[in-house]
Amino acid sequence: MKQEELRALLRKRLEREKQCYISRVTGVDKNTLSMFNTGRLAELTPINFNRLYKYLVVGDANETN
Predict the structure, then answer these.
(1) I want to staple 35 with a disulfide (CB 3.0 to 4.6 A). Which of 39, 41, 50, 60 is the partner?
(2) Buried b vs exposed e over 4-40: b needs ≥16 C-beta within 10 Å?
(3) How do residues 12-59 score in pLDDT, each as one tens digit?
(4) What sign has the CA pseudo-torsion 53, 56, 57, 63?
């Protein structure tokens, strides 16, 4: 998955969840999420990318545990 695809998933998720919640659950700083969402941060670091990817793509299955 590319950074832009992840950004689009984040924007869609932000329609129903708060950014501070996503930050708390993923461990990605809320300012980093904000800058990534608005495009001021072109790319996330690999560790933050993986954390956000796991939450947005894989996380739905894990939320029911």
Answers:
(1) 41
(2) eebbebbeebeeeeebeebbeebebeeebbeebeeee
(3) 999 999 999 999 999 999 999 999 999 999 999 999 999 999 999 997
(4) positive
- State the residue for tokens 């560790």: 47
* Six-digit token string for 56: 């947005």
**What DSSP string runs through 10-59?**
HHHHTTTS-HHHHHHHH---HHHHHHHHHTSS----HHHHHHHHIIIIIH
Task: Report the alpha-carbon distance of residue 30 to residue 36 in Å, rounded.
Answer: 10
Q: Which two tokens stand for residue 44?
A: 């996330």
